[in-house]
Amino acid sequence: MLEKIYRWTMEKAGHRHAVWWLSAISFIESSVFPIPPDVLLIPMVLAAPSRWFYLAAMCTLSSVAGGYLGYAIGYYAMETIGYPILAAFHLVEKFHAFKPLVDEYGVWVIIVKGATPIPYKLVTIAAGAFDFDLLQFSFASLIARGMRFFLVAALLYKFGPPIQRFVEKRLKLAMLAAVILVLAGFAVLR
């Protein structure tokens, strides 16, 4: 089933309306869809490197907009919709473990978790369920998703196909390094 969804998603990368497919998948991945938008973003940037910034921006803004749907699911329909979604992705245990992190680290945990390849739907649904401040959620989501998609697109623009294998295999490591650099930068500014 997942392989079929993956192939369907990859077909959309070559579609004449690929940017809209990228936006749609970025949107729904933030709350319910299992395939991350990177599978479209990567081939699209490789096919049109000069559009890397535009593609990363579309992916980021769509993902953040979709994050509001995930937030609403957690806030308004956790029992009826949120838990079934999390259960489908085997994320219920991680959801419960996420609460103390959100309570202690707030925006920072949303930035870190939202930038990494963990399912963003966990972050969005949990933020709504935990009644996390919507303005702070918006700020953290924009930073997190922007870091993730702009880093991927910029690396592909700069280094092309050779970096594709690295990004696909070591995205978690690359995002962790980016998050550490951002946190270090904020610490230095303080």
Describe this structure in words.
With 190 residues, the chain is mainly α. The chain has one domain. It is built from ten helices and no strands. It has helices at residues 2-13, 18-29, 38-47, 52-76, 78-88, 92-105, 107-115, 120-129, 134-159, 161-189. The longest helix has 29 residues, at 161-189. The protein starts with a helix and ends with a helix. The relative contact order is 0.13.
What's the structural blueprint in terms of helices and strands?
Blueprint: H1 2-13, H2 18-29, H3 38-47, H4 52-76, H5 78-88, H6 92-105, H7 107-115, H8 120-129, H9 134-159, H10 161-189
Q: In terms of per-residue confidence, which ranges show pLDDT below 50 for 5 or more consecutive residues?
A: none
Helix content: over 70%
Number of separate strands: 0
The 3D shape can be described as globular
Count of domains: 1
Main sheet properties: none
User: From N to C, what is the helix and strand string?
Assistant: HHHHHHHHHH
Radius of gyration: 16 Å
Overall mean confidence score, pLDDT? 85
Count of DSSP H/I helices? 10
Strand content: under 5%
Secondary structure class reads mainly alpha
The termini sit apart by 48 Å
Give a quick rundown of the structure.
By secondary structure, the chain is mainly alpha-helical.
Q: Which key phrases capture this entry?
A:
mainly alpha, 190 residues, 10 helices
